[in-house]
Specification:
alpha/beta; TIM Barrel
């Protein structure tokens, strides 16, 4: 089977000759890994990633020389001078009060966006091709407002929040329509809703503000012939029935610290595929290579029963995870005929 065929089998809840796998790296971790390999594209050429992905967050439009602050197309100023060098933190709110007169349409660079989509679609490979939007709904709202204000305004200023989410949705639908012009396999939406126990905003507010817009985004991607993959960190178990109802195909970042694997397979494994499952919070940075190997084997055996699983760390690998720890996981990925 090709790599794409294995991923398709997983999404269709069918068995395959090998469990498909994928691994992302933060920029710091990638620099740490690169000297161990002779090729720059080690993720695909050596580690055999089954998915090839591109993602849009809003590119920088302004950057101060020598500064780690930049303004993106949404008008948000990000500060990467702290510990988070990949995303950064919001420097100040773009919308300082619950008033839509502060809102400005993103400065969309359509030509650059199309080049990014084309880079994925035109790649000559047998991988499953994915393009997506990061910070797609709730995260985009709090990037405008601050995290605390986004949560507060769901309760205190619901009309304002509905208006803001509608503007975010309209922009996302424009992006989805462009991606649908290209021969890709799936659309990916990034949006964190969970904490270690339960959802950040509670199921009712999620169902009120997020679900109806998400349903329209999923529908648009499905009309374009794309599978839908949703990323959310944290515990969103209360939302699984809603996500299945509106057509989610695959949930990404399935954290074993939060979910019981056997429970998930029993309750939702027939309806929802999973991408993730190997802990970057506990297992990979803390366990020995032999422990990582044994736990990776257990997870693959449990989650791949009957299909429905893409093996992967739960987050892009961070630089606190050593090379030998990463490669213990990949030893199982690449030698499944020996271990499974």
């Amino acid at each position: 089977m090709t790599r794409k065929e294995r991923v398709l089998a997983a999404l269709r809840h069918q068995a395959s000759d090998k469990v498909p796998h994928h691994c992302d790296f933060t920029e710091q971790a990638r620099r740490m890994m690169a000297p161990h390999f002779a090729v720059p594209t080690f993720e695909d050429d050596v580690l055999d990633n089954h998915l090839y992905c591109g993602q849009y967050w809003g590119w920088p439009t302004e950057r101060e020389p020598g500064s780690e602050r930049f303004v993106d197309e949404y008008g948000v100023t990000w500060n990467r001078s702290g510990a988070d060098k990949d995303i950064g933190v919001v420097d100040h709110p773009v919308i300082p009060a619950p008033d839509m007169t502060y809102y400005r349409e993103p400065a969309f660079d359509e030509a650059r966006f199309r080049r990014a989509v084309e880079q994925v679609s035109a790649r000559d490979c047998d991988q499953f091709k994915v393009f997506g939007i990061g910070f797609s709904l709730f995260e985009r709202a709090w990037s405008y407002l601050t995290f605390e204000e986004a949560l507060y305004n769901m309760a205190a200023e619901p009309r304002f929040m509905h208006e803001l989410f509608e503007r975010i949705l309209a922009y996302n639908l424009k992006l989805i329509a462009i991606v649908n012009e290209y021969p890709l396999d799936a659309f990916y939406f990034g949006d964190d809703w969970g904490q270690q126990h339960g959802t950040l905003m509670g199921p009712v507010h999620w169902q009120t503000f997020i679900k109806p817009r998400l349903a329209r985004m999923y529908e648009a991607a499905h009309i374009g012939g794309k599978y839908v993959i949703q990323h959310s960190c944290g515990d969103i178990s209360a939302l699984f029935p809603d996500l299945i109802e509106i057509g989610l195909d695959c949930y990404q970042t399935f954290q074993p610290e939060i979910y019981d694997l056997a429970w998930f397979k029993r309750e939702y494994g027939r309806d929802l595929s999973v991408w993730g499952g190997i802990s970057t919070q506990q297992l990979l940075p803390r366990a020995t290579p032999d422990q990582i190997r044994a736990e990776t084997i257990r997870i693959l055996r449990t989650m791949s029963d009957g299909g429905g699983y893409i093996a992967s760390p739960t987050h892009a690998v961070t630089p606190d995870i050593r090379f030998d720890q990463i490669m213990a996981m990949f030893d199982v990925f690449l030698n499944q005929d020996r271990y499974l």
